[in-house]
Amino acid sequence: MIDSHSHLFEEEFNIDIEDCIKRCKENNVNKILLVGFSYDTNRKALEYSKKYDIFYPTAGIHPDEADDNYLEKIKDLKDFISKNKVYAIGECGIDYHYTKENALIQKIIFKEQIELSIKYNLPLIIHMRDATADTFNILKEYKGKIKGVMHCYSGSLEMAYEFIKLGLHISLGGPVTFKNAKEPKEVAKNIPLDKLLVETDCPFLAPTPFRGKRNESSYVTLVAKEIADLRKISYQELEEATEKNTKELFNL
Q1: Residue 128 pLDDT
Q2: Distance CA 46, CA 44 (A)
Q3: By C-alpha distance, which of 169, 167, 111, 113 is closest to 144?
Q4: Of 56, 233, 237, 243, which alpha carbon lies 20 to 30 A from 44's?
Q5: How far apart are CA 47 and CA 231, in angstroms?
Q6: For the chain, which ranges sit under pLDDT 70?
Q7: Strand (E) positions, the chain?
Q8: Cβ-based neighbours of 63, under 8 Å, separated by 6 or more
């Protein structure tokens, strides 16, 4: 099993990172994409991947980082990627949940990272929150040139198919286990199995029965079990398919 999106470098894990890794291995979680999203976290992801063989680092600029210093942040990311081995560009994307005032800067940063993913032939890890139309319209400009994943996807099944047509995968996390999560469950049941990834987004969005508590990568097995049950297939079939998809997408 592979956790395709994790932030195990966050301070919540400072006291027990070794125990978290141990629990992963005990649960057959043997690979974890450690996703950077800022100057500091890109470097932490790289540092941790050198220290622990279970991690594969990525680097990006989260839409929350979109501020007046965006040109310097883009310049730094380009420099960082040119000098270091990463497995994806991102976490990047569009997020209007808290504000749209920086929408133009968000779009500029997102497009720059799409261009980087094309230049280096790396997949994108795409964050989308309350911004489906703008995210889709930007990605549509690059149809045929991009690959990647809609991370912790919370949109409709209809739009999931549209993102898949652009060459993207769909990743589901803890919310698919929530009792009233109608759309994630519909997506989990219906999208092509060869386009599906699983993730935790830890320390956020812990699955049932840990909802509201700190999430960790070993809990990705709970996400996988829920999806297998929804699709009425065995856990082993779901595990094998998502592992294959993740390895191929990120060239692990």
Answers
A1: 98
A2: 5
A3: 167
A4: 243
A5: 38
A6: none
A7: 2-6, 31-34, 55-57, 89-95, 124-129, 148-150, 168-172, 196-198
A8: 92, 93, 94, 95, 106, 109, 110, 127
**How many folded domains does the chain comprise?**
1
d(CA 61, CA 90): 6
DSSP lists the bridge partners of residue 32 as 3, 55
Question: Quick one: DSSP state of residue 120?
Answer: H
What is the residue whose two structure tokens read 């990627």?
81
pLDDT of residue 42: 98
Q: Give the pair of three-digit tokens for residue 34.
A: 């450690």
Q: How far apart are the first and last CA of the chain?
A: 13
Determine contact, residues 86/57, Cβ cutoff 8 Å: yes
Q: What is the CATH number of the domain that holds 171?
A: 3.20.20.140
- pLDDT tens for each residue of 157-203: 999 999 999 999 999 999 999 999 999 999 999 999 999 999 999 99
Cα(252)–Cα(242) distance, integer angstroms: 13
**Quick one: tokens of 74?**
């883009």
Q: How far apart are CA 222 and CA 175, in angstroms?
A: 11
* 57 and 36 Cβ atoms separated by less than 8 Å: yes
DSSP reduced 3-state for 59: strand
Task: Tell me which residue range forms the domain holding 9.
Answer: 2-250
Contact 123, 158 (CB under 8 A): no
Q: Using alpha carbons only, what angle is made at residue 243 by residues 237 and 249, rounded to the nearest 5 degrees?
A: 135
Closest of 165, 166, 124, 167 to residue 148, by C-alpha: 124
Structure tokens at 195: 């386009």
Name the amino acid, one letter, at 118: I
Question: At 128, is the secondary structure helix, strand, or coil?
Answer: strand
